[in-house]
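During the no-cost extension, the postdoctoral fellow (Dr. R.K.) reprocessed legacy sequence entries with the updated structure-token encoder. One reprocessed record is reproduced below for audit purposes.
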Amino acid sequence: METILGLCIGIGLSAACGFRVFVPLLVMSVTSLMGWFEPMKGFEWLAMPSVCIALAVATVCEITAYYIPWVDNALDTISTPAAMIAGTLTTMAVSSGEMSQFASWAAAIIIGGGTAGAVQMSTVAVRGFSTATTGGIANPVVSTGEWISALLLSILSLLVPVLVVIVVLIMVVWGVRWVRRKKQESMNSSIV
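Re-encoded structure tokens follow.
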């Protein structure tokens, strides 16, 4: 049961990494310092005040950069692999000690990295659509929604992880359907 709960927390945190790379790590660090969350062995560095400060600075820089026109689109090329790495790390930091090291890392890479990558790719698609249809004017609204989603998902992942997994699955299904619909619409409009 502890393994499943750890994976649920990892899925939620890695999905949050898909929205903003540093927000879930900052939430994990703050909650570690407050004694509400204990990272797994090897990830005790999350509970260091200097790491928390560094993550806070990185979070502010990341959030701010997404409000700068065209920089937000450029950041997506860097954020995609970074989100997958962060998703892997967050999942590994909450994985249970019941699994072997190999199984833990394999699950973290596949589940954490895969979830973060899927969410990140959907945000890239939304930002691309926003840029194409509004010339980037609506991108700050998209950016605001993304960092708020990252914060809420991170907090809720630690409080109600099973509910977050259900929400993440619904979001992924909705995102895939949205992207398919937009591709179909663009194909139909290019045919005409």
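The chain has a mean pLDDT of 89. Helices lie at 2-19, 22-33, 49-65, 71-94, 101-134, 139-159, 161-191. The remaining legacy entries will be reprocessed before the final report is submitted.
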